[in-house]
Amino acid sequence: MLNLSERLSTLKTTNLVTRPVASGRLVRVVGLTLEAIGCRASVGSLCRVETLHGDIEAEVVGFSGDTLFLMPSEQLTGVLPGARVTPLVHEQGIAVGPQLLGRVIDGVGNPLDGKGDIYSDNKASFTAQTINPLARKPIDSPLDVGIKAINGLLTVGKGQRIGLFAGSGVGKSVTLGMMTRGTTAQVVVVGLIGERGREVKEFIDEILGDEGRARSVVIAAPADASPLMRLKGCQTALTIAEYFRDQGLDVLLLMDSLTRFAQARGRLLCQSESRQPQKATHPLYLPSYQRWLNVPGMAVTVRDQLLLFSPF
Predict the structure, then answer these.
(1) Cα 19 to Cα 14: distance, rounded to the nearest angstrom
(2) How far is CA 182 from the centre of its chain?
């Protein structure tokens, strides 16, 4: 347990932005889309929206003229006409570091396991730079995933991406748990996207276990979370995995499942296209699912159902 002085020493205060920010107000709320005027913010940045139950964060996904279009990462309740909307000027990104190992967080990095806040001086940006294709390392060394059938017949290489396709109830999640416990990778990042809340707890307690959890980071964005939170969960899992990869560690990234990621993205796209004016400058700013299929230097496993996958 950190005392007060130790906690204060972990806080990074040298890069705080102190420039004044003008607040705006809400003029329209339709579905998951919020429309605000009177403030300026870039696409992809965050704003704080006033509600009856406290402030919530919403991401700027587009604009038309002086009107900003936002989507909340939390459940949208208690919003009033004319509510204050304030752009956030702090550094965007997620706290990363060895403090994440053994922890369970939500799609934006908030802890879910009741073990307290995560303090780290390092922040990783959600927007990664594209790697020069000539700088990519060849896939020439195998990764032991702890399952002899896969190691012998379907060998996984470091930097390779594989998909796990099967029907319901045949053991896909159990297979992922076995890989998490038995792999020789030094860090395992698990993204549980769109799962039922009960299944998330069962996977962590029964399938992952204490042995697998000790070197893992679990990002949980269950089915009852907002579509934007599910998208953020995928983005957060990938950002954390890339951070540990850049530290020279072998990383196994598991995402369960790509189908629900695509469904969440499609739902937000439909909301945007049906609610925003035709003259909107940017219809919607969302992380592309294609980034999941192009991760260098890292073994990536996604669980999916082939007939349900519909990229947008």
Answers:
(1) 14
(2) 25
Give the pLDDT band (50/70/90) at residue 300.
low
DSSP β-bridge partners for residue 122: 96
Give strand ranges (E) for 81-213.
84-87, 94-96, 104-105, 122-124, 142-143, 156-157, 161-165, 187-193
Convert the pLDDT of each residue in 80-95 to its tens digit.
Answer: 889 999 998 766 678 8
How far is CA 284 from each of CA 61, 101, 184, 268, rounded to the nearest angstrom?
Answer: 5, 33, 40, 8
Handedness of CA 229, 62, 122, 293 (dihedral sign): positive
- pTM of the predicted structure, to 2 decimals: 0.76
For residue 254, count other CB atoms closer than 10 A to its CB: 26
Whether 282 contacts 145, CB under 8 Å: no
Give the span between the Cα atoms of 13 and 29, in whole angstroms: 35
